[in-house]
Amino acid sequence: MSESLLADAGQRLEHALKYTSISDDAVETLKFPHTSLTVSIPVRMDNGSLKVFQGYRVRYDDTRGPGKGGVRYHPNVSLDEVQSLAFWMTFKCAALNLPFGGAKGGITVNPKELSRMELERLSRGYVDAIADFIGPDVDILAPDVYTNAMIMGWMMDQYSIIKRQICPAVVTGKPVSMGGSLGRDTATAMGAFFVIESTLPKFDRTAQTTTVAIQGFGNAGAILADLLFQAGYKVVAVSDSQGGIYAKNGLDIPSIRQFKDSCRGIKAIYCDNTVCHTAADEVLTNAELLALDVDILVPAALENQITAANAGDIKARLIYEVANGPITSAADRILNEKGIYVFPDILVNAGGVTVSYFEWVQNRSGLYWTLEEINQRLKLRIVEEAELIWSIARDLSIDLRTAAYVHSLNRLGEAISAKGTRDYYLNHH
Length: 429
Ligand code: GLU
Hints:
- The relative contact order is 0.14.
- α7 links the parallel β7 (211-215) and β8.
- Mean pLDDT is 93; it is low at 264-273.
- This protein has helices at residues 5-17, 24-30, 79-95, 116-130, 149-163, 187-199, 219-230, 253-261, 264-267, 286-290, 329-337, 345-348, 351-365, 371-396, 400-417, 422-427; strands at residues 35-44, 50-61, 67-68, 71-74, 102-108, 139-140, 211-215, 234-240, 243-246, 282-284, 296-299, 318-320, 341-343.
- The radius of gyration is 21 Å and the shape is globular.
- The chain contains 16 helices and 13 strands.
- α1 (5-17) packs across α15 (400-417) and α2 crosses α15 (400-417).
- The protein has a domain at 29-178: Rossmann fold, CATH 3.40.50.10860.
- It is an alpha/beta fold.
- Bound molecules: glutamic acid.
- The site of glutamic acid has 11 residues, from α13.
């Protein structure tokens, strides 16, 4: 990659700043990650050898509250990626008005190559390495790409062992039996679904007349595909890292999910099967999926999927970003020129961290909510913020991503300025 992810993320910040009047202090504060930690995690492998993995935890900003963000296990995890993801978390938490700053963690590893026991030792080792840097009032972990509830449970357990007290609120996305929240597993998809449902009427569309292509069939992509399918949308294409399938009249999502899940018993946490081996549907590549002539395109995989190189091929009218950072800032400009509406990641996928916030609140109060209560609260909050972002875009005649950043910047700027600004100190009024 020629340019760093963080530099690209910074371009969004620069652009959005033109539409806000936040103080110079706030601008200066938000330019750099607050703290970046790199750790080496020694793990005893099943064959007796010792292997050292690289791990990271970055707290980008904590003006609005403790750091909050997931932990990613992926071979491509780097400090630059974790810093950008922490940057996005900062703006995501502000966009949804959650009392958190932004943080992120990661380990450079291909988790599919580890045994379950190695994975547990790695996860506990990661917490050993970063324990002084996290905490329920400092920085709270959660799942991200290739991490799940069980791993969150191990992390919470390890932190509690270190602290010699049960500390459920240091990690969200835990198993429900260990203090996890109902609805956290479906929250990212549910939030995206609420955003799609509440914004679609603005384009005079209904579910039945809308075709959808989804890139990525993980926790977010697969559950969203199902929610859309159940609501009557025509989901014509889905894919995972191995490739995808297409059916002009719509795919039968429940059977595809069943197929993906069928190997759970054999391969446990990670699944070998891919969606492209299912039925007689047409097979297509991820690149072909992105260029399909559909109404809605949902990138739900990884960063940098739509770049200056392929943005010109996009035919969808609406894009809802479920992955973090799937579109580069150069691609944004091309999509804007083509009149494509991009609903940005920091709004669309914020359902996950919103229910993480509910989990943290429940852990701290000791009072647990029903699934209906959680989904209702999530819907209220995400639809309200989507509406505010839509109004900012309309009032300032700017694209939705810039509007979302303006919205977050206003909240971040207010919090940073509350401690005093240059004007305050020099003008004495
Ligand atoms: N990893 C998710 C995200 O990128 C969730 C973070 C959280 O729940 O703290 O938004």
